[in-house]
Amino acid sequence: MLSSGLTLIFSMMGVLNFAHASFYMLGAYFAYQTGLVFGFWPALFLAPILVGVVGAITERYGLRKVHKFGHVAELLFTFGLAYVIEEVVHLIWGRAPVDYRIPESLNFTLFTLFNTQYPAYRAFMMIISVGMLISLFLVLTKTRIGLIVQASLTHPDMVQALGHNVPRVFMLVFAGGCALAGLAGVLGGNLFITEPGMAFAVGSIVFVVVVVGGMGSLVGAFIASLLIGAIQTFSIGLDLSFIDLMGVLGVVIDSNSSWYAGLSITISQTAPVLPYLLMVLMLIVRPRGLMGTRES
Amino acid sequence: MELGDTMNRHALSLIDVRKRFGQTKIINGVNLEIVAGERHALIGPNGAGKSTLFNLISGRFPVSSGSIALNGSDITNKEPQVINRLGLSRSFQITNIFPKLSVFENLRCSVLWVLGYRYSFLRRISALRDAKESAERTLEMIGLKDRREKMAGELTYAEQRALEIGITIASGANVILLDEPTAGMSRSETDTAVELISRVTEGKTLLMVEHDMGVVFDLADRISVLVYGEVIASGTPAEIRMSKKVQEAYLGTQIDGDEE
Amino acid sequence: MERVFNKSRLILWGSVALVFALLPLLFPGGFALSMLSQLGIAIIFALSYNMLLGQTGLLSFGHAVYFGLGAFMTAHAINFVEEGAFGLPISFMPLVGGLTGLVFSLFLGFVTTRRPGTPFAMISLGIAEMVAASALMFTTFFGGEGGIVTDRTAGGAVWGVSYGPQVQVYYLIAVWCFISMALMFVITRTPLGQIANAVRDNPERTQFIGYNPTRVRWIMMSLAGFFAGIGGALTTINYEIITAESLGLMASGNVVLMAFIGGIGQFWGPIVGAVLVTFLQSALSNFTQAWLLYFGLLFLLIILFSPGGISSLIAMHGPLWRAGMMKRLMPSYVSALCSGGVTLIGIIGVIELLYRGTLLVGVHVAFTWIVAGFLVLVGAFFLRRAIRSVAQAWEDLSPDLAKWS
Q1: Residue A108 confidence (pLDDT)
Q2: How far is CA A19 from the centre of its chain?
Q3: Are A221 and A294 in contact (CB under 8 A)?
């Protein structure tokens, strides 16, 4: 979901948003705050809208100004923004995690499979994510608004000449992408943890997803996120070390050997590195990414 | 087609070159031979594929099929820099210079590879006398001497076009491709440009795309006409003027004859 | 600008060397010395980063990788020397760091420089993450949470230099900093440096003058990695401890800030940035928790209003200075400074109140809030007018300036 928002902004505007994960974090915090006042359900709608508004302001008063300095300036701007948002969150909500919880009405076990309890909230998340993706896809490809958006991105001058307000379209696209990130934050914030470091934790993995999936491809991002999720889950489950592997091959390493320390790492310990390794491999084998069309 | 020349008399020879973008066929089997030392113009209506053909020859796009040879050696689908090192240099229709370098630096960059300095970081560039002299010569030739220290991005349009040609010829390549060198110029600017082109391509092979028929008939020894991705005629200016096929192609489709 | 070592440039470099030599005499205190050492390292690091961003147009978010790896390798090398595995005077340890940086950037650069622009930025970030994650994995090499500890006096004294006292370390850093600065400057004046600028401006065109832009980027990145590694090695010698933090994303982000705040358009821009950022960081972090926020805001302001950084602001005034027209700008500058100062105080007040807001309640707090808010509003009002008058003053000047030059 997060990566689909990022992909949306990137493919649509050619702007890569480093602060994207920060908007995700804002979503979680806004949901927490509005949730305190109105409860979870209104917050589910309000928080993404608020994030969208913040996104729109960012585009209008920030990005649009740096646009003329080129892509590097845009990238750096969002990079600086990520810093500032994180600090502002520190400022307002403090450094400790806030108590943003899954609503009672969804906090039950949906079903039990192989002794693993499957919580209803996860199912709820899945439904909303898939629903959002499908409606996003439909809006972009089937409606008039989608047509205008796509046309503005490829031929801004022409669309402007036809009487549409192209800068506003850009602003709305950016806001939409941010709102998506915000929604992801609303849903993810209570499942995981809502704290100032959350943007950082999730940010880089989103990037990997986008690179692996191929820049500017929604489908690619979706497949890549599933792939990376699967790899991580599997590798965490495997508690084998390289020494065990070599044992199978008939090689026994003495625990005093200097190689021992390096090889005693289990596959589950390598889990954090695997997505990045996948990304690097992908770049060597297929620089465009899985479904990427956009070059450079 | 004037066949029968030996391969090595040809600066460029294209055999059945084709290019598709998706389902759209842009170049449909072009055969073209450019004799060493001639000035050859490529004309044709808009959308005929002239610029695409340039991009194929200079290695900017890969061909879909067919082969291209430069001075007798195969350059099909080679990388642009490899083709350039073999002695082919091109200009661009849309000005393509180094905007934040000075005019002099633009030209000096263009001779570094040919003079063998490659990626050296062990020599001071200001001590390279041959690079400096070569750049000064080109600077003089394109008439931008008093703009020497100016940033290329700050030049006027006509000056940038001249610099574009300067970058193209600076390395002394013997096959030059110019893509609409006079596009967007006023009459007097065009005259200056024609004079410049004829001077700087002295003794070299020139292939140019041009819409201005005045320029074409002034400069070209031979002309090829490209319509819908095919060469429908090739010959001297007089022959082209007389050709029925060309008249049909131009008058029949009512597309530009004289100026853009 | 024709000759690299003309007279005025020799004088300039000579005075830089002199300043490096004299600084510890002017500021002999312990804090000042460690500050200066830190500055020297930051300067090397920021300049090496600018070889990528400013000269080749490569926006990297993972430059600390080469800095950090160089630092770790140096730490191990020093420990080997201590064990007597081989002998290398500490003075030459930065070469170990540099070569480590070079090897890794040769290897990783080959993968990452295949694509310029945004993809490069993302890939560099991914690689940085990968290395940072590996650092926590391979605890033997990276020492886990605690890092690797060394002893810089390991090799014993050579010619009476033991690197026990901080001042000796400072001079080591100063010498290497000077050498690196000079080398990096010279590289900008070589065929490679020139072509790197061309690649930055217009990579496609370089192909049609015979160059392979990917190769140019790769070489530049390797060289930048080399110098970053030297910086890393000096860090190890300076602190005698190195942790995985030094190659993490924060460190990489920091060098982006330095280079950009200082300005990537001038060779000396990153030096300004390195000095300013390092100095402010250690100064501000003593006073306020919000120093990162101030940095972020400063960074955003610079991107929005002066994308060339501080150095380009300074450079912009060069011709005016020579033409003797500076005084015509002064009135508008003074008013901008005053109103800007008021706004700044107001903003700082608001931010600090927010930070402490949970602790303080009472009438005087409310009063402070009102004062701070008032300052922001009034300051902003006058600042807008002042900015307009600055722009006007510049406009008035430009015809005269054009005539003068």
Answers
A1: 63
A2: 11
A3: no
Lookup: tokens for B159: 């000056």
Q: How confident is the model at residue C82 (pLDDT cuts 50, 70, 90)?
A: confident
Among A71, A84, A296, the residue with its CB nearest the CB of C300 is: A84
What value does the mean pLDDT of chain C take? Answer: 85
| A237 part of a folded domain | no
Domain presence at residue A223: no
Q: Number of B:C CB contacts under 8 A? A: 103
CB-based contact A106:A120 (threshold 8 Å): yes
Residue A13 placed within a domain: yes
Tell me, yes or no, if C382 comes closer than 8 A to chain A by beta carbon. Answer: no
Strand B65-70, strand B73-74: pairing: antiparallel
Which chain A residues have a beta carbon less than 8 Å from that of C297? 84
Residue A96 structural domain: 2-213
pLDDT digits (tens, 9 = 90+) for B220-233: 999 999 998 899 99
Q: How many residues would you count in chain B?
A: 260
When mean pLDDT is compared across A241-245, B23-27, C215-219, C302-306, the lowest value belongs to A241-245
Task: Using CB atoms, pick whichever of B80, B90, B117 lies closest to residue C191.
Answer: B117
In a domain, B136, yes or no: no
Cβ contact A43:A49 at 8 Å: no
CB contact A65 to C (< 8 Å) = yes
Tell me what percent of the residues of chain C surpass a pLDDT of 90: 35
Contacts of A294 in chain C (CB under 8 A): none
Rg (CA), chain C: 23
Residue A282 in any domain: the answer is: no
Cβ atoms of C261 and C54 closer than 8 Å:
no
State how far the Cα of C97 lies from the Cα of A24, in Å rounded to an integer. 39
Domain count, chain B: 1
Indicate yes or no: CB of B97 within 8 angstroms of CB of C200. Answer: no
What is residue C120's predicted lDDT score, i.e. its pLDDT? 85
Q: Please state the ipTM of this predicted complex.
A: 0.89
Residue A97: DSSP 8-state: P
